[in-house]
Amino acid sequence: MESRKDTSLRLDGNVERGRPVQITVDGETIQAYEGESLAAALMASGRRVFRHADPGGHPRGVFCGMGICYDCLVTVAGQDHVRACMALVREGMQVTTRGE
């Protein structure tokens, strides 16, 4: 049986994270960690708005965090309609949001 790396929250409050990597978001390079969701990386970089709803233009970002609501859609490497909460960060990822 394959063993998995324990990434759970410890009682001391420390979380073991994946390897640090660089991704590009809207032309800006940010640090993220392998194994975390793209939504987590975007929020950690201070981004809350990933796109605007059509119609109405209302700001959208992470809502459900589990791929059901589709509010966190971004473009990854030219592929539109990627759910940021479901996509895992990987080195060199190119991301485009339609946020503010």
What's the number of extended β-strand segments? 7
> What is the H/E order?
EEHEEEEE
Low-confidence stretches: none
CATH class: Alpha Beta
Q: Structural class given helices, strands, pairing?
A: mainly beta
End-to-end gap: 46 Å
Shape: globular
Q: Could you please say which CATH topology applies here?
A: Ubiquitin-like (UB roll)
Strand coverage percent:
25-35%
Give the neighbour order of strands across the main sheet.
Answer: 2-1-7-5-6
CATH architecture: Roll
Summed up, the domain count is 1
Question: Quick one: CATH superfamily?
Answer: 2Fe-2S iron-sulphur cluster binding domain, sarcosine oxidase, alpha subunit, N-terminal domain
Largest sheet: 5 strands, mixed
Rg result = 14 Å
Mean of all residue-level pLDDT scores = 89
Number of discrete helical segments? 1
Please provide a written account of the structure.
This protein has one helix and seven strands. It is globular and about 45 Å long. The longest helix is centred in the middle third of the chain and has 7 residues, at 38-44. It starts with 19 loop residues before the first strand and ends with a strand. With 100 residues, the chain is mostly beta strands. The strands form two sheets. It has a five-stranded mixed sheet, with helices on one face. The protein has a two-stranded antiparallel ribbon with strand order 3-4.
